[in-house]
Design brief:
The chain is mainly beta. The protein is built from 2 helices and 8 strands. It is globular.
Length: about 100
């Protein structure tokens, strides 16, 4: 199965980055290609991507704060994104697989 790994660093502290990652309603603020998000009460949500408003993609969010990890799994495809946060000076190191 194809995979990727990338890492970036943010000047924001880990707590501020965490607030963006664990809240699906904030995904359009930072995730290129996501137009809107419909959040459900059971931890699931549906994203609507730019250019494909008639192709909603149900998602599942798993947050493990004690491990500084956020995982987004698409319930329509086999896409799975996992972010891990680590302090980097005053900012945050953010690897994603």
């Amino acid at each position: 199965m194809p995979s990727f790994h990338d890492t970036t660093t943010s000047a924001a502290p880990p707590e501020d980055v965490w607030k963006l990652l664990y809240d699906p309603s904030r995904f359009p603020d930072w995730w290129a290609g996501i137009e809107t998000v419909d959040v459900k009460n059971d931890g699931k949500y549906t994203i609507h991507t730019d250019g494909y408003p008639d192709f909603p993609m149900a998602q599942l969010l798993d947050t493990q704060r004690d491990q500084h990890r956020v995982t987004v799994s698409c319930l329509v495809s086999d896409l799975r994104f996992e972010w891990r946060l680590a302090p980097a000076g005053d900012g945050t190191r953010i690897p994603v697989d």
